[in-house]
Amino acid sequence: MKVKPEVNSKNDSALILVESNRKKGIMHYMRRDWQLYCLLLIPLSFTLVFKYAPLSGLLIAFQDYNIIKGFWASEWVGFEVFRELFSKPAFAQALRNTLLLNILDLLFSFTAPIMLALLLNEIKGNVFKRVNQTLLYLPHFLSWVIIGALAYQLLGLGSGMLNNLIEQMGGTRIPFLQEDNHWLFSYILIGVWQSMGWGTIIYLAAISAVNPELYEAATVDGAGRWRKMWHITLPCIRPTIVTLLILNLGHIMGGSFERVYALQNMATTEYTTIIPILVYRWGLESGDYSSATALGLFQAVIGLILVVLADRMAKRLGEDGIL
Amino acid sequence: MGRSVTNINLPRYKKVNIGDIIIGITIFLISLTCLLPFVHVVAKSLSADAYVIANKVFLWPKELTFDAYAKIFADQSILQSFYVTVIITVLFTILGMIITVCAAYPLSRKQLKGRVALTFLFMFTMYFTGGIIPEYLLINQLGLLDTIWSLVLPGAFSAFNLLILKTSITSTVPVSLEESARMDGAGHFRILWHIVLPITKPILATLSLFYAVGRWNMYQDALFYITYNTELRPLQLKLYYLVVQATESFQLELTQVSTSNPEVLKASIVVFATLPILCIYPFVQKYFVKGVMIGSIKE
Q: Ranges for the ABC transmembrane type-1 domain (chain B) (predicted)?
């Protein structure tokens, strides 16, 4: 972050004051830009109340918090809550699931848009391309509840369309969403389906910026479609891929509560307990606020560290950072 | 004549070979997977119960009937949740836009003292938050649980949208225009209202859509904050209880499929909840694409 004094040289009236700017007190800037500070009061108060005030609530992770006693009367226990947390089997499972789902997402949901963008780029008819893009972007606009509902309508065991089709063709019904391993597969596939089209936008923009002369030269040299893809398009969009990959790596401790919650059911509990789900269950369903907060804090701190590391890594590789 | 027409037209069509056809078909099939689920659900929602129970409806309705929709529009609680969603979406979008503009304009002024620190203060919320429980306890302490304000106020500020607007104000509003306005004695309020807002209108539309669609689709906070006052359940949460959770119990009682089959009703509720999005989607899609592009460009 740069901390050099900002000098507005363009403002004529301020020009004379530039010399003595360093000595001006805060009142000077307040008087000059009071309108700007007034405007800032609104977002500032919102941010302080709804984003920063909850941070003080994180302290209950170090308390034996009792909602009836309240924050001030609850007993301080230091890191006791965390010690208990780390020894719980549910914690280990939630941590494993969070990492598992995110790593699988990274393998499939991250790569799918790249391949799809490469294919879309090959399409020559503009109308055909636009129609397909419109369809492919659509799932991004649906809520996870709707996607969950659609998933059960299509993949459900008893009456899902796909299973009806399988049965009609003489196969046996597959528990896509009602058995752990199948669920994991469906979860990832649905994630790919939801984000694939939308993810192509950035790659398509990067591809369109590739110098067309490179392709012409390659054509003259007799390179076919796939060779051009491999040796020109992919290397040219590599900076975009690397930046997005690092950004995704930074979020590997995250996890979409809404996505898992809309797709889970009683029959599949093995992989559905990710950290946010466990926080919800412990905190809001069972009232164990201290453990739930500690778990949330654990996730947030690791998440922040990962994002900062990812940013450093991106900058070291000469890409744009994210911070 | 015919020859020359072909000659003019020819260069516009590049040669189509077998590879193009394979790629075209692949893309088309993938696109179909985005369309067919809706076709199926619509078909199901318009079919007679008996065919749906017998698992005979695929992509075309059997014995066209609008009974299920008649039931939905007769159901007060579903309509109520629709109204609630519309109201919170409108309030949320207006509030979100006011807050975003009030933050983005000052932070885009180079002369503002403390600009870097303030920007950091806002941006930090993107990477570290109190999380589910502290936020819940705050809403509880403010007495907002089971009110629509719990769904409007906490999320109304988005650091990501602020970043987009700040970036686009810096890049689209010409400094010279602003300078001349200032020469004429215009203050910040007038510059904001008469110059910055009109110029950034397209991006304001995009951000409003970001806020609106985001609010419309979200159900997590409603699940947390609206627990007793079920009248205030937004549509998505209602849908969750009606369809997703019901599916669960329905699947467990697989063997006893009775005459009172809720499948048609479920399908029609899904269509009912999706339709508003599907209706505006073709018109707003291009704004979203634009927003993504600006969001990906760093200042």
A: 82-282
Least Cα distance to A276 among A248, A300, A310, A301 occurs for A300
Q: CB–CB of A43 and B189 under 8 A?
A: no
A108 contact B CB<8A = no
Chain A CB contacts of B126 under 8 Å are none
Give the DSSP letter string of B221-261.
HHHHH-SS-GGG--HHHHHIIIIIHHHHHHHHTTT---SS-
Contact flag B156-A146 (C-beta cutoff 8 Å): no
* CB contact B217 to A (< 8 Å): yes
- Cα–Cα distance for residue pair B269/B261, rounded to 1 Å: 14
Please tell me the distance from the alpha carbon of residue A197 to that of residue A51, in angstroms, as a whole number: 32
Give the chain A residue whose CA is nearest to the CA of B248. A265
Q: Could you write out the three-class secondary structure of A130-186?
A: HHHHHHHHHHHHCCHHHHHHHHHHHHCCCCCHHHHHHHHCCCCCCCCCCCHHHHHHH
| Burial class, A180, CB count within 10 angstroms (exposed 0-12 / middle 13-18 / buried 19+) | middle
Show me where the domains of chain B are located.
Answer: 1-65, 74-234+290-296
- Give chain B's radius of gyration (CA, Å): 26
Q: Where does the pLDDT of residue B215 fall: very low under 50, low under 70, confident under 90, or very high at 90 and above? A: very high
CB proximity list for A195: less than 8 A, separation 6 or greater: A109, A112, A113, A139, A140
Task: Report the alpha-carbon distance of residue B52 to residue B258 in Å, rounded.
Answer: 12
Q: Pick the closest to residue B199 from B168, B159, B158 (CA basis).
A: B168
Burial class of A229 by CB neighbour count within 10 A (0 to 12, 13 to 18, 19+)? middle
C-alpha to C-alpha distance for B274 and B294, rounded to whole angstroms: 28
Chain-centre distance for alpha carbon A20: 47
Alpha carbon distance B151, A155 (integer Å)? 32
Using alpha carbons only, give the angle B10, B14, B16 rounded to the nearest 5 degrees: 120
For position A4, what pLDDT does the model report?
A: 45
| Per-residue pLDDT tens digits for A26-41 | 788 878 888 889 999 9
**Torsion angles phi and psi, residue A63, rounded to 5:** -120, 165
Instruction: Mention every residue, 6+ apart, whose C-beta is less than 8 A from residue B131.
Output: A54, A58, A279, A293, A296, A297, A299, A300
Q: Are A304 and B127 in contact (CB under 8 A)?
A: yes
B74-234+290-296 maps to CATH 1.10.10.10 = no
ipTM: 0.86
Give the type of residue at A219: T
* pLDDT for the residue numbered A315: 83
The answer to whether A110 touches A245, Cβ cutoff 8 Å, is yes
pLDDT on residue B261: 59
pLDDT for A270-308, tens place per residue?
899 999 999 999 999 998 999 999 999 999 999 999 988
CA–CA gap between residue A259 and residue A175 (Å, rounded): 19
Question: In chain A, what are the domains?
Answer: 12-66 (no CATH), 80-316 (1.10.3720.10)
What's the token pair of residue B122? 């806002």
